[in-house]
Amino acid sequence: MQSGFSVCRRKAGQTFRKTLGLYNYKLGHQQYHKEPGSVSLNAVEQLKNTKTYEGIMRIRKLRQESDRVFGKFVGTKFVVDKSRIPQYDIPDLTGFELKPYVSYHTPQVDKETQTKLERMNDFNLIENLVPRSETKLLDKK
């Protein structure tokens, strides 16, 4: 007997890839082309035009040996260089007079200002559809 629920399982390593975030150059679904664009397009096109196995292998080697933002390939493994990962320097805010957060409370807007804003954003009015220089001409007629 079948139940009404379907079970979704993640692939091995999928959770780990998501935690890497910006530091993983292969983010995207399985069929999505995920090249970091580290080899110039002119070089790739010239090697593709040769239509030889050596050209294809040369492109693959150029892509693997190219310098990534945060690491490089060693053999078949991608090695992360921790010195290239940005370290955020968060300042100490003790004794700082301004509050380090944004207030959740917004200032009250009076009714007159609110109706002016609503009239300006209402595109059913002809004065908002026609440029101001033409509205002066319409008023004179």
UniProtKB/TrEMBL annotation:
Q: Which GO terms describe its biological process?
A: translation
Which keywords are on file for this protein? Mitochondrion, Ribonucleoprotein, Ribosomal protein, Transit peptide
Please classify the protein's predominant subcellular localization into one broad category.
mitochondrion
Q: What superkingdom does the record give?
A: Eukaryota
Q: Which Gene Ontology terms of cellular component type are present?
A: mitochondrial large ribosomal subunit
What molecular function terms (GO) are annotated for this protein? structural constituent of ribosome
Spell out the subcellular localization from the entry. Answer: Mitochondrion
In terms of Pfam families, this protein maps to: MRP-L27
Q: Which residues form the signal peptide?
A: none
Regarding protein family, the annotation reads:
Belongs to the mitochondrion-specific ribosomal protein mL41 family.
Tell me which PANTHER family the record gives: LARGE RIBOSOMAL SUBUNIT PROTEIN ML41, MITOCHONDRIAL RIBOSOMAL PROTEIN L41
Q: What is the protein name given in its UniProt record?
A: 39S ribosomal protein L41, mitochondrial
Q: Specify the species.
A: Paramecium octaurelia
